[in-house]
Amino acid sequence: MVSDTAGATSVVEPRAPQRWPGARSRPPRLDRPPRRTWRQALARDWRLYSFLVLPLVFFAVFRYLPILGNVVAFRRFRPGSSIFGDEWVGLYYVRMFIQDPAFWSAFWNTVVLGGLTLVVVFPLPVVLALMLNELRSRRFKRAVQTISYLPHFMSVVIVAGMVFQLTAAKGTVNQVITSLGGTAVAFFQDPDWFRPIYLTSEVWQTVGWGTILYLAALTTIDEQLYEAARIDGANRWRQTWHITLPGIRPTMIVLLILNIGSFMAVGFEKVLLLQNPVIYSTADVISTYLYRVGIVSNSVSYATAIGLFEALIGLTLILSANAISKRTVGASLW
Amino acid sequence: MVSDVTTRKVDLGRPRARVPRGVRPRDGAGYTAFRVANAALLLVMCALVLYPFVNIVAQAFSSEGYINSGQVNLVPRGFNLTTFQVVMSDDMFWVNYKNTVVYTVVGTAIAMALTTTYAYALSKKHLKGRTFFIGVAVLTMFFNGGLVPNYVLINTLGFKDTIWAIVLPNAISVFNLLVMKSFFENFPDELEEAAAIDGMSTYGIFFRIVIPLSKAVLATMVLFYAVAFWNSWFSAYLYMTDPHNYPVTVYLRNLMAGVTSGTTVAGGSLDNTTQIASNVQSVTMLLTVLPIVCLYPFIQRYFVSGVMLGAVKQ
User: Fold this and answer.
1) DSSP A27
2) Which parts of the sequence belong to the ABC transmembrane type-1 domain (chain B) (predicted)?
3) Are residues B173 and B294 in the same domain?
4) How many A/B residue pairs have CB atoms within 8 Å?
């Protein structure tokens, strides 16, 4: 088949770039294939390009169109208008949310909850990974890993259901409290309890799975470093402090940057499932607030303006965290 | 080795076995005490991780009187199966359970088709525009349109109350895409070259050489997507108005919302009319997680190796 040769060359050619027509007159560049025009590339690799079509349509429609759709933050949107809205209104909606006390309440709740998540949940996988690393029995270690990864695979609905069940009026937590002589707590009637409950469920669900990358990093540490340290008389604690922790530092920094980037997007689905109007004063975060405003109450432009603001904060955070880490410790995402 | 990627044992421990006996100094009493405490602490942690599951099972088999008086923790009290009968006799539960299966199967199939082809094309280093096509995907990890623009888009497309609202917007996970891309990049060129010399086209090579030799990584990706679709609830909650279209996660969510706000559940047709009993909730949770918990011990290592594959190459 004639057309097949095009496909065939696409696989064979890159190894022998100097045979490509047009490159023949120039000295052969072995380090990289010669430049081709789009016409040549399409003629040669059209089958590969055909693989790209549907995914590119997917990205255009379901990823980039909604990004462009953010212009409705600056345009009026009426039911039935296109996804880009009707007419320009400038910063009308931005001014609106800046003056909205409910937004600022949600904003500070997000900052507190995101900050607590970062401080409490982020370091725990490192601790757990180090603890696992001290185990000598392979079988015990594997069993602990298997058990601690399990919550990661639970739907957030299941996690919320477990939380409700354990914190119910006669649930396990209240049984423990009353057996210790305390009085039962109505956990979901009291705004003060929301953050501890959220953080506990976050720890339960994410800490085990979070160890994977650290455990992988631990295996790359050169065993000779430990031997040298032992010969120099370092005890286990010093070995951990001077060899193990520096060894997993790059992983920690990359994960820290990523976590800072998702700081504002605190577990939206979980918060939405756990919150109720009685505890909005601590449990309402930006994403749940804009869900109620934009989708339940249909103020599309207003909610989009808030969402855009949130996204810009997230982007600023990740870019600055990356820049700081690049300058200070030389590690960065890209 | 190609098919070896996921079958290789992912050993995450420091290779202690290689240290000769004589080199390791004898542990001091302090370190021995530490090791005992460490192991004990890990055991306690495992117990805490497992406790909520045990509690669900115990409540699912208990009678309501014992639950409401706070006597059910580790073991069922007043053992009975009536709650199971109540839940399983609800037609809506089965309709929704079937929906979850359908959404998972269709969603995973579409996601695999799009992810595999895109990743394969991107893995070819000579492809003109490759950097751009990678950038198109990676950029969406850092920017996304946000909840409301997405919602408006899906409504405009007329996807509301159709399966497409659930399966299409989540068809490609960029993380999975990058894992597959790096896998295909490590695929030995010689095999594909030999097939090309034999006159196979790119399509032939892809479907008859690459796919059959990538079964392990494809299985990992299928698991990643299937678990994500099985667990998802929010798209359905957002876009489905007819209870007949809910997946079981939304069924469960509505059950819980009924419990916590003290009202009767919307869309449920259960016998007890006043309040959805907590043991009904436990049984529904149990039946929802059952497939995942049963498969979990067998598939866990595939997930771990998938994450490692993605992490090592990036």
Assistant:
1) P
2) 97-296
3) yes
4) 317
Question: Which residues lie closer than 8 Å to B55 by C-beta, 6 or more apart?
Answer: A162, A165, A166, A172, B72, B73, B74
Q: How many structural domains does chain B have?
A: 2
Residue B172: phi and psi, rounded to 5, are -120, 120
CB contact under 8 A, A54 and B289: no
Distance from CA of A323 to the nearest CA of B (A): 16
Question: Which residues from chain B sit within 8 angstroms of residue A171, using beta carbons?
Answer: 70
Check if B47 contacts A (Cβ < 8 Å).
Answer: no
Binary contact (B289, A69; C-beta < 8 A): no
Report the distance separating Cα B246 and Cα B254, nearest Å. Answer: 10
In a domain? residue B33:
yes
Q: Looking at the complex, does the CB of residue B191 fall below 8 Å from at least one CB of chain A? A: no
Is B32 found in the same domain as B177?
no
B145: left (phi over 0), alpha (psi -120 to 50) or beta: alpha
Tell me if B11 is assigned to some domain: no
Question: Would you identify the CATH topology of the domain A95-328?
Answer: MetI-like fold (1.10.3720)
Which of B81, B106, B129 terminates a domain? The answer is: B81
Task: Divide the 334 residues of chain A into consecutive groups of 10 and give the mean pLDDT of each group.
Answer: 37 43 51 72 88 95 93 85 82 90 93 93 94 90 92 93 89 90 89 94 93 88 89 87 90 88 85 92 93 90 92 88 84 71
